[in-house]
Design a protein that fits this description.
- This protein has 627 residues and is of the alpha+beta class.
- The protein has 2 domains: 273 residues, NADH Oxidase, CATH 3.40.109; 230 residues, NADH Oxidase (3-Layer(aba) Sandwich).
- Helix content is 29%, strand content 17%.
- The strands form 5 sheets. Strands 2-5-4-3-6-9-7 form a 7-stranded antiparallel sheet. A 6-stranded antiparallel sheet has the order 16-15-14-17-19-18, sandwiched between helices.
- The two termini are 45 Å apart.
């Protein structure tokens, strides 16, 4: 039988150069004068070395991959159409596990009696520097159910318009939910009397137990009463819609899952830290996954056939969950890696993942090639050190914003990502600055602390801030329209000034910055320009402000190519935080993962090409859909 090739996709074409005579008839005039980009400039940043060393070759490969995955591929007909014939199944299950434990459905906040409501963790408390501000819940069947229900379960809301999938608490940038979660826990009260490893099934809110573990692993290698959540991703769940751009969507979803886990754990008085010193082999052994070998995916630009191997999970990271008020402790990664090999290498794993496709797969080789290249140059941290006494408190204005009674559970499970926003709404300046304070990794305006990851939820990472934020202000009271920059890492300030457009002013005034590292770059109306970058999506034009999360190549001293996925994790955490803050203030935040990267570079750095755009997020007043 002849293979059926899908029709040509209808993605927005990339902007083509036009003459000065016809420019006025093609695009509307934007009141901000931007320099024209050099058509002869290469897309590869000029600071990348040309010596063919392996590490330099990887830097060049990542830069080329990032700069070429935009809508150019869609315009050339290289991206598959989101056709239902290629759509994967909505949920992943493990067939024939040891047992399946359906967790009790947690009581919603609205169903709680008033006395119990007062015991719930308030949303403003998670940003407190006092780890005892929220009462710690013991690890039990009820608390574990609550934790998973508020972080990784199915959420309320409408199905995704393109995939038809149900929404989840951990958002999916591409709508296909490629993230998979595995739980490794000690004995849980009223659930299991032995340590276990299980896959979490969001469809039935259940644990599919795959193995029983050795108690010594939790006693000797982890802090008391700690557990691990392993996160993996399936690239193919996004490739069928977005081609090579699935790399961006999958790792943004990993960041959203990390943030969801952090907020749900904080509501129970638990702390969270990323175990970033484990290698891919360690994660494969820990999660009991079959090794994902991608050599067969490298041949050709795209392939359509039955390739079940591409449905295998790619282990991404592991998150440590521990009591927030725990004393100072240290984990040596070499010792933990040896323990994983010793305790998990001989585990008899039960269950096989269910097939996700009806038979036809679409493979784009570049996403797998890049993933394998990053793994090759992975670098290991030596240890993990938790110091609760060094945590700082974010500035907050609950008495002004009116969410002093909002609980973490309400915020986590709230419906978000509205596609319609009110273009006439003006944002109060107090709400705007609340967003910015929470976006600082330290939560503190002091310049020497900007990059420190001491504030929630950025304390989950073990590195200082690596991404910066440009803000297109459309409608904020008492603040002029234009382009602003929130410098999240003071070490990047001079690099930003050298890299960005020479037309940027870099003005800083305490009158409108409120002691924040907020710089004014351009004045003028940027609504149409941002909408042009964001595929003309209405939310970019109708929002009160739009954040552009970027990374400056070579801006962080000691950066290595292996941290490329981590940039998207940090951007995903920031998007999740913005969505919760927006709901707390009666607004909505919509992540924008589809955009013209070249247009963004033309706005920010038309000459150097050193800025890589990771994600956009628009914040505004939600508007009901017209009947």
């Amino acid at each position: 039988m002849a293979k059926v090739r899908p029709p040509t996709p209808t993605y927005p074409p990339e902007e083509q150069p036009v003459s000065e005579e016809n420019r006025a008839t093609v695009t509307k005039k934007v009141p901000v004068n931007l320099p024209e980009s050099n058509p002869e400039r290469r897309d590869i940043p000029p600071d990348l070395p040309k010596v063919p060393r392996l590490i330099d070759s990887l830097r060049w490969h990542i830069a080329r991959f990032h700069n070429n995955w935009s809508a150019a591929a869609a315009a050339a007909g290289e991206l598959p159409l989101a056709d239902s014939r290629y759509r994967p199944k909505e949920f992943l299950h493990y067939l024939n596990p040891i047992s399946v434990y359906r967790l009790p459905p947690p009581t919603t906040f609205r169903e709680l009696p008033p006395r119990c409501r007062r015991r719930e963790a308030l949303y403003s408390f998670v940003f407190s520097s006092n780890p005892r501000s929220i009462r710690r819940a013991p690890l039990s069947r009820e608390s574990l159910s609550q934790f998973l229900y508020d972080s990784l379960a199915v959420a309320e809301g409408e199905r995704d318009g393109a995939t038809g999938f149900l929404p989840r608490v951990n958002h999916s940038s591409g709508g296909s939910h490629p993230t998979v979660a595995h739980v490794f826990a000690p004995p849980v009260l009223d659930l299991l009397e032995e340590p276990f490893a299980a896959h979490y099934s969001p469809e039935g809110h259940a644990l599919e137990v795959r193995a029983l573990l050795d108690w010594d692993f939790f006693c000797k290698e982890l802090p008391p009463k700690a557990m691990i959540v392993g996160i993996s991703t399936i690239y193919w769940r996004e490739v069928w819609r977005h081609g090579d751009r699935a790399f961006r969507y999958c790792h943004l979803d990993v960041g959203q899952a990390i943030a969801a886990v952090a907020f749900a754990a904080a509501a129970l008085g638990w702390g969270v830290s990323l175990l970033d010193g484990l290698s891919r082999l360690d994660l494969e052994t820990l999660m009991g996954l079959r090794p994902f070998r991608t050599s067969g995916c490298f041949r050709g630009r795209e392939r359509r056939d039955n390739f079940p191997s591409v449905e295998l999970q790619n282990p991404v990271c592991a998150v440590l969950i521990f009591p927030a008020a725990a004393p100072k402790f240290r984990i040596i990664y070499r010792s933990l890696s040896d323990a994983i090999s010793r305790y998990f290498g001989s585990v008899a794993w039960a269950g096989e993942p269910s097939p996700l496709a009806g038979g036809v797969h679409i493979i784009y080789h570049e996403i797998y090639r890049t993933s394998a290249a990053i793994e090759r140059f992975w670098t290991c941290n030596q240890e993990l050190l938790i110091e609760p006494n060094r945590l700082l408190q974010s500035r907050s204005f609950p008495e002004l914003l009116g969410y002093e009674n909002l609980t973490v559970r309400e915020a986590c499970r709230s419906p978000r990502s509205r596609l319609l926003m009110d273009p006439g709404h003006e944002l109060d300046p107090e709400a705007f600055y609340q967003f910015l304070y929470h976006c600082l990794p330290s939560g503190h305006p002091e310049a020497s602390l900007w990059q420190k990851r001491w504030s929630f939820p950025f304390r989950v990472f073990r590195w200082n801030s690596r991404i910066e934020v440009f803000i297109a202000v459309n409608r904020v009271k008492k603040l002029a329209r234009g382009l602003y920059c929130l410098v999240r890492n003071a070490e990047n300030l001079q690099s930003l000034k050298r890299t960005c457009s020479p037309f940027f002013r870099w003005e800083h005034s305490r009158e409108w910055s409120r002691d924040l590292p907020l710089y004014r770059l351009l004045l003028g109306d940027l609504e149409e320009k941002i909408a042009e970058i964001a595929f003309d999506q209405p939310v970019a034009m109708n929002s009160c402000f739009t954040m552009m999360m970027v990374r400056v190549c070579g801006g962080v001293p000691g950066s290595v190519p292996s941290n490329y996925p981590q940039l998207f994790w940090e951007a995903g955490v920031l998007c999740y935080l913005l969505s919760l803050d927006a709901y707390a203030m009666g607004l909505t935040a919509s992540g924008i993962g589809s955009f013209f990267d070249k247009q963004a570079r033309r706005l920010l750095d038309p000459g150097s090409g050193l800025i890589q755009t990771l994600c956009l997020c628009a914040v505004g007043k939600p508007r009901t859909r017209p009947e």
